[in-house]
From TrEMBL:
Residues 71-296 form the ABC transmembrane type-1 domain. Keywords: Cell membrane, Membrane, Phosphate transport, Transmembrane, Transmembrane helix, Transport. It comes from the Bacteria. SUPFAM superfamilies: MetI-like. This is Phosphate transport system permease protein. Belongs to the binding-protein-dependent transport system permease family. CysTW subfamily. The gene is pstC. It comes from Arthrobacter ginkgonis.
Amino acid sequence: MSSNALTESGSAGRTGDKIFSTAAMAAGSLILFVLFCVAVFLVKESIPALTADPADLKGGVSFFTHIGALIVGTLIAAAIALLLATPVAVGVALFISHYAPRRLAQSLGYVVDLLAAIPSVIYGAWGITVLAPALVPSYVWLSENAGWIPIFAGPASATGKTMLTAGIVLAVMIMPIITSLSREIFLQTPKLHEEAALALGATRWEMVRMAVLPFARPGIVSAVMLGLGRALGETMAIALVLSSGPMIASLIQSGNQTIAAEIALAFPESSGLQTNALFAAGLVLFVITLAVNMVARWIVARHKEFSGAN
């Protein structure tokens, strides 16, 4: 190849790099601009509710009193979902990636991906028609035998539409997401690390504990945070499962609610100042989600250098 041809090829490559770099920069800037516009819009629409007389708002209480219960409900539902879903999801991902036979692993992978694609309204309908009635006897037992614990204080819900039921439904919803991402991360573990651990006499579990989990730790955190984001913002499933009302009750009583579900249920019939209050609630959820993602990025950055990937 002549020197002129090499020069033309290098020039074309540099031009392509510049075009790609510019396009990537424009896409990133567009995302930040849209996020900024959303934040400005929410703040603008929230100001009337934040400064309004409590008597003019729903329930005759200040916005912060009303939203406080919704924040607690949102965080409790998301926490229950994470506590239930994370161990099971990571265990299933490990089984698919390192224990199951190839054919079974492929079939399970397809099933997990299919579960992740099911609409949330289906999970909500399942929760209210199947899960909630089935859990009523358990709630009665908890109320009678563990009612001295505040989170299990009675009276138990007769319908099963409680925060614990909502948390279980959310756990089922986010489990496929965490499983799919964790599985792909486990499969990316360097084979040399795994073979070195086995060559030193480690059992399969010891190999997973010493080579796979340290390498995948940042990815697992990212998967869990993605599931948390889904749990925090879930609307239809929670709206179907929970009874209306923002009061803070125990996990087995009716009457809890989350921010996203409250917005979805109240927005169609709202007007004026009540609409501004719902926008303010959306602003609070926006801030919570942003804070969760920032904490997740900090955790991933903190543990990245110890992940074994370097």
